[in-house]
Write a structure and sequence with these properties.
Strands 1, 13, 14, 15, 17, 18, 20 and 21 form an eight-stranded mixed β-sheet that branches. Strands 2-3-4-5-6-9-11-12 form an eight-stranded parallel beta barrel, surrounded by six helices. The protein has helices at residues 5-12, 25-38, 55-64, 73-81, 96-105, 118-125, 167-177, 195-216, 264-267, 300-304; strands at 19-23, 44-48, 67-70, 86-89, 110-115, 134-141, 151-152, 162-163, 183-185, 189-190, 222-224, 257-260, 271-283, 286-291, 311-313, 326-327, 330-335, 344-351, 354-355, 359-363, 384-387. A hairpin with an 8-residue loop joins strand 17 (330-335) and strand 18. By secondary structure, the protein is α/β, with parallel strands linked by helices. The chain folds into two domains: 5-21 and 271-387, Lyase, Ornithine Decarboxylase, Chain A, domain 1 (Beta Barrel), CATH 2.40.37; 85-262, TIM Barrel. Helix 2 (25-38) runs parallel beside helix 3 (55-64) and helix 6 packs parallel to helix 7. The longest helix has 22 residues, at 195-216.
């Protein structure tokens, strides 16, 4: 896989041994434009900050997308500092303090709160009248599942949302508490690669929302279908094809906002994780490239059990008096610096030539890389962050 010249140049200037994330905010903006063009006209596009909350990345998405989706008080504060124009606040474990912070934020910024339970609704109502810029939607765990993906959120027992069979009672509670409900949050899947099925899911979600709102006496003004646009890390032929999003069957009434909140699909292509080869060694007939980095920086390959592709960037400088270790024409495992055999980023990758001091650069690491990793295990230095 070829790397952008800007990424290679940035890494050439990095301190040795190289260990860095490179984020390109231009790629982030291009990604937003491509997704926006593929969505139904007038749809709202939020960026889900859980994918990558680096301030520069969040700021780029706050400027390019319609708003930011947050799932904690910390993300809420970061989104506000990024000057997000609109906010959506979800998550199944909002504390009273986080709900109060959401209400406070809505005094200056449009915010839609996705309520996850009857108890959360009571906690919200206890805070008093809501600001005019704050809307409340009910997150629902529907009886049916969404499109196939890596994680199913609905149609199965999960801690997310209100069971569809309990929705009527929660809607009645909202009315009794004087909390107006504007619609539904129906996030159903993570990392789906079937764009056609995702469009069908969205079409069905809108139809369900119209029927359910009418049955519950809710004036429907908002349907959020969540995120779930997927990335195939190890097979480029399996991609979420934006061109396959067919909206011809979508029947969205006037005055109803349709919102999407992808994270991974927007952020992943804007990031590269680069790490220097510290050693090459063979044990029991298997070659290992030992890296200045690993799963404490980029946990996703170990968490999902796949081998993440990498590109070798050759570094010709060798300032040492001893012979430079080198291998070629063999398969190698790319492993990290942690004291565990599970610290593996790639397995069995054939390399034409690899030397100690060369760099391995892992593309598509702008989402769920640093943010989900166990940074402090063994207390190794954090990677540098280079923002383009």
């Amino acid at each position: 896989m070829s790397l952008p010249d800007s990424v290679v140049s940035a890494l050439a200037a990095a301190a040795r041994p190289v260990c860095a994330y490179v984020y390109d905010t231009g790629v982030a903006r291009e990604r937003v434009a491509a997704v926006r063009a593929a969505l139904p006209p007038g749809a709202t596009l939020y960026y889900a900050m859980k994918a990558n909350g680096h301030p520069a990345v969040a700021g780029a998405f706050a400027a390019a997308a319609d708003g930011l989706e947050v799932a904690s008080g910390g993300e809420l504060q970061l989104a506000l500092s990024a000057s997000a124009r609109r906010l959506a606040f979800g998550g199944p474990a909002k504390t009273p303090a986080e709900l109060a912070a959401a209400v406070d934020a809505a005094r200056t910024t449009e915010l839609t709160l996705h309520v996850e339970s009857a108890l959360e609704l009571r906690r919200l109502a206890a805070l008093g009248p809501l600001p005019p810029a704050m809307r409340v939607a009910l997150r629902v765990n529907r009886a049916i599942a969404g499109p196939a993906g890596s994680h199913a959120m609905t149609g199965t027992p999960t801690p997310f949302g209100i069971d569809e069979t309990q929705l009527a009672s929660v809607a009645a509670l909202a009315a009794s508490l004087g909390v107006p409900v504007c619609g539904f949050h129906l996030h159903a899947v993570s990392n789906s690669l079937d764009a056609a099925a995702y469009a069908e899911f969205t079409t069905d979600a809108v139809a369900w929302s119209r029927r359910t709102a009418a049955e519950l006496g809710i004036e429907l003004r908002y349907v959020n279908v969540g995120g779930g646009f997927g990335i195939s890390y190890d097979d480029p032929d399996r991609a979420f094809d934006l061109a396959a999003l067919d909206w011809t069957a979508l029947d969205l009434p006037d005055g109803v906002e349709l919102a999407f909140e992808p994270g991974r699909f927007l952020a992943a292509p804007s990031g590269w994780y680069a790490t220097e080869v510290l050693d090459l060694k063979q044990t029991h007939g298997r070659w290992f490239a030992v890296l200045r980095g690993g799963t404490h920086h980029f946990r996703l390959p170990a968490a999902w059990g796949y081998s993440h592709p990498f590109t070798v960037v050759r570094v010709d400088d060798w300032p040492h008096p001893w012979e430079r270790p080198e291998i070629g024409g063999v398969a190698v495992d790319a492993v990290g610096e942690l004291c565990t055999p599970r610290d593996v980023l790639a397995r069995g990758v054939r390399v034409d030539r690899l030397r100690v001091g060369d760099l391995l650069v892992f593309a598509n690491t702008g989402a769920y890389g640093w943010d989900i990793s166990h940074h402090e295990f063994l207390r190794h230095p954090h990677p540098d962050v280079i923002v383009l």
